[in-house]
Write a structure and sequence with these properties.
The chain has 287 residues and is of the alpha+beta class. It is built from 5 helices and 13 strands. Helix 2 runs antiparallel to helix 5. It starts with a helix and ends with a strand.
């Protein structure tokens, strides 16, 4: 049996089927003000996968429409757009309190061989050569809201090792890129759809924050408003989320109170297994 924190995450992705194309998922309060975006990404993919057989998701494109309520379940309605000879298309709408909070389109493909190439993995230290994040001193922790304290202090189902650690309290200005090793904290079953679902969940960590680096700001500041606007993800090769994966992120631009970040996810053998892109709201409020 996996550790309780991992089992809780897996249970979160196990949706209740209400009708043929209608599912219900529970929400989990992990210390964020609203439902964590990765939860909705993972659950929406889980819903879509429940309507497809023998085909593997290769891409998903999502929009966050409204903030999710952590105290309420989410209903996922799946539209079976098309089942072709090689590809299947699905559209998912996440509904809470009678209103759509999120939409996602996903495409699935029958496995087949084809041309192969990839960009090389960045030359970075392996995760075993990196230290775990240092605990936040109590005097700094007291400066942020209680709920946010739980977010930054909680031991979640994933562990992270930063190649270039950043102090969110001192907030130095630096170029908009980062490399983060991550993995699930315990082994899980050889269930490929589950591993893809959990990678979608984890892909929402660290991504949009990359676009704040050149500006010396942090989500811990009271005058910084940040929210995911959309999220795209492409799955390239098989992987395991309970093995170390490298998330290599950069941000090519920020403007108009929006920042764009991109990510490439490599396994420990240097294979590019997935890519991501996300635009997020980054707004400086009057203090």
């Amino acid at each position: 049996m996996p550790k309780p924190i991992v089992g809780e995450l897996i249970d979160l992705m196990q949706l209740e089927r209400l009708e043929e194309n209608l599912f219900r998922g529970q929400s989990r309060d992990i210390g964020t003000r609203f439902v964590f975006g990765g939860q909705v990404l993972g659950q929406s993919l889980a819903a879509a996968q429940r309507t497809v057989e023998e085909r593997v998701v290769h891409s998903m494109h999502a929009y966050f429409l409204r903030a999710g309520d952590v105290e309420a379940p989410i209903v996922y309605e799946v539209d079976r757009n098309r089942d072709g000879k090689s590809f299947s298309s699905r559209r998912v709408v996440a509904i809470q309190h009678g209103q759509p909070i999120f939409t996602m389109a996903a495409s699935f493909q029958e496995p087949e061989d084809g041309l192969t190439h990839q960009l090389s993995m960045p030359d970075v230290p392996p995760p075993d050569d990196l230290s775990e994040p240092e605990p936040i001193p109590p005097e700094l922790l007291d400066k942020i809201p209680a709920k946010l304290q739980r977010w930054v202090m909680s031991r979640g189902p994933f562990e992270f090792r930063h190649v270039y650690p950043r102090d969110e309290f001192k907030r130095p200005k630096r170029p908009p890129f980062q490399h983060v090793w991550f993995r699930l904290v315990d082994r899980i079953a050889d269930d490929e759809p589950l591993h893809r679902t959990l990678l979608a969940y984890a892909s929402d960590f660290h991504l949009i924050g990359t676009s704040t680096f050149p500006h010396g700001i942090s989500y811990l500041q009271g005058n910084v408003q940040m929210a995911s606007l959309d999220h795209a993800m492409w799955f390239h090769r098989p992987f395991r989320v309970d093995d170390w994966l490298l998330y290599s992120c950069d941000s090519p631009t920020a403007q108009g109170a929006r920042g764009l970040s991109r990510g490439m996810i490599y396994d420990g053998h240097g294979r590019l297994v997935a890519s991501t892109a996300q635009e997020g709201l980054i707004r400086l409020l009057a203090e």
